[in-house]
């Protein structure tokens, strides 16, 4: 699972609502993390940046290790700046698209539901009694 995916996931258990603290999911017990290089696509990164919850991205990257989120500023870059630093875009690309969580867990900060990550796939399925209605 890449951090681009993590940045879009929230808990939808019955005890979590859209007004509760169900995002971002916290990484727990990450036992396998891989770097899988991907070609840098500046247009894609620029186009996706407005959709990124910056605080969640920086927090998730730093929770995976000090070197993963290295170079990411604490506050979101100015997206209206046509001269947005290409080095920063490359760092964002690295964090969003090249870091893969292969094995571990994500924990909902609201209801403490655990979502397993196995073989790089997050299991977001809920039991029937956990489904929001």
TrEMBL record:
- Read off the InterPro entries from this record: Trm112 (IPR039127), Trm112-like (IPR005651)
Which GO BP terms apply?
rRNA (guanine-N7)-methylation; tRNA methylation
**Can you tell which superkingdom this protein's organism belongs to?**
Eukaryota
Classification via Pfam families? Trm112p
Instruction: Spell out the CDD domains in the cross-references.
Output: Trm112-like
Q: Which GO terms describe its molecular function?
A: protein heterodimerization activity
**What family does the entry list?**
Belongs to the TRM112 family.
Among PANTHER family, the record links this protein to: MULTIFUNCTIONAL METHYLTRANSFERASE SUBUNIT TRM112-LIKE PROTEIN, UPF0315 PROTEIN-RELATED
* Record protein name field: Trm112p-domain-containing protein
UniProt organism field: Acaromyces ingoldii
């Amino acid at each position: 699972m890449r951090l681009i995916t993590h940045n879009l996931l929230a808990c939808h258990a019955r005890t979590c609502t859209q007004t509760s603290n169900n995002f971002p999911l916290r990484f727990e017990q990450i036992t396998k993390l891989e770097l899988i290089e991907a070609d840098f696509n500046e247009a894609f990164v620029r186009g996706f940046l407005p959709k990124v919850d910056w605080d969640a991205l920086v927090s998730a990257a730093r929770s995976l290790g000090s070197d993963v989120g290295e170079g990411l500023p604490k506050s979101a870059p100015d997206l209206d700046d046509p001269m947005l630093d290409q080095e920063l875009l490359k760092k964002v690309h690295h964090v969003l698209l090249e870091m893969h969580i292969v094995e571990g867990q994500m924990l909902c900060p609201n209801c403490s539901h655990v979502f397993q990550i196995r073989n790089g796939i997050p299991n977001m399925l809920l039991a029937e009694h956990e489904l929001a209605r």
